[in-house]
Amino acid sequence: MTYKSLKKGFTLIELLVVIAIIAILIGLLLPAVQKVRDAAAKLQCTNNLKQIGLAMMNYESTYNRFPAGYLDNMTTNPVNAMAAANPDPIIGWGWGALILPYLEQEVLYKSININSIAMNNTSAAAIAFRKTVIKGFLCPSDDTGLNTFTISGTGGNFELAKCSYAGVNGQGELADFDTALGLGMFLRGRGVSIAEVTDGLSNTLFVGERSSKSAKHATGTLPGVCTWVGALPGGDIDGESPALYILGHTGEPGHAHKPNSPQPDGFFHAEDFTSKHSGGVNFLFGDGSVRFITDSIDDDTWVRLGTRAGGEAPGNY
Question: What digits encode the pLDDT tens for the residues 264-274?
């Protein structure tokens, strides 16, 4: 008599139990993996800002001033120019362009003439320059898959390299062409000296994050750009300051614009600082340190940090 051996397999119930266990393990593992990714992105962002801080310090050592917030058609001296009459359209170079030699980007910097006016708009060198992506200007937590964007207006079309960071102009709104009057570190047409930072470099905000959460005219995102500045008639930011692309503010006493905080209209404004990090925004201070400013920072403390010579102690944060 012969016997057939019976192969034992999983029952349906056993299979369902195994699948359930695997699903639970995946559910437990994914948040941990995401936390590791977020921590790595935050660390890379911190390192980016530290490198920007070193470049700022080296620039100051060379010129005895920090870089201007931006130089436009009428303010093209990279050290001591003052804001002058307002040409139309406004086109020029941002603080990120001025520090390129100190970020191992001297070849790119020398591809343009920082004191040239006409080439800002039409030359092949300018076109290539303003759409060159600088990895150190991008926070990995805000990777949207697009590192350039295009603005259009009656003045032309401009493809621009995205940037995740904006300089601090001060407390007030970035109204048209008033940025030379800003109370912060980055102004139109001239650099600020250390002697002007009477609040102390360790108490003064320099550069912070601006993510794709920030809106333009409360209708869509406004990517930042460090190296180029412009406002085109009929363009994306017509009627606004060209500084919106590269500068930000903290808001004024009694009307703070804290990090990652929507304004009363429910939108994140283009002049404000936002990030995709959980709970706050990375910021470069004048002493070269990078600190994480939480979304819950006290209103008054936040506003005070935006000035270079307010004469007030910033408090704890």
Answer: 777 788 889 99
